[in-house]
Amino acid sequence: QVQLVESGGQLVQAGGSLRLSCAASGRTFSTYAMAWFRQAPGKEREFVAAITWSGGSAYYADSMKGRFTISRDNAKNTMYLQMNSLKPEDMAVYYCAADVIPRRLPANQAREYYYWGQGTQVTVSS
What we know:
By secondary structure, this protein is mainly β. Helix content is about 0%, strand content about 50%. The protein is built from no helices and 11 strands. The strands form 2 sheets. Strands 2, 4, 5, 6, 9, 10 and 11 form a 7-stranded mixed beta sheet that branches. Strands 1-3-8-7 form a 4-stranded antiparallel beta sheet, with no helix packed on it. The radius of gyration is 13 Å and the shape is globular. The model has no long low-confidence stretch (mean pLDDT about 95).
C-alpha cells in the first residue's frame, strides 16, 4: 500500500507561483513512476506531468511545458510540482498519483495509475 498526501494548494493571483508537494508513505516510494493530474469542475481529470522512478526524466502536457516543473526527492519520499505563470484556467484540484507497473515511459492516462491522493485545491484569481 502507498498513501499519498498532497499539500500546497491555495489562492494565488494570475501570474503567480505555487509549489505543490505530494508526501508518500507505505511501500517503497522510489519504485514508482509518479504523476500530477488536475480536475476542474465539470471537466475530466487531466494529465499535468509525470516523472520516472529515478527522477531522471519528466514529461508534461503541452499546456504546462515551460511553466510547470515536476521533481521528486526519493530520500524524502516527496514529489513536487512547481507552477509558475499561473493562469485562471489552471484552477483545479490537483492530484498526485503513483504507478505500480514498470513502463518504458510514465503513463499520461489517469486509468494507468493505481494510487491517488485526496487532492489539493489551486485557485487562481484574475
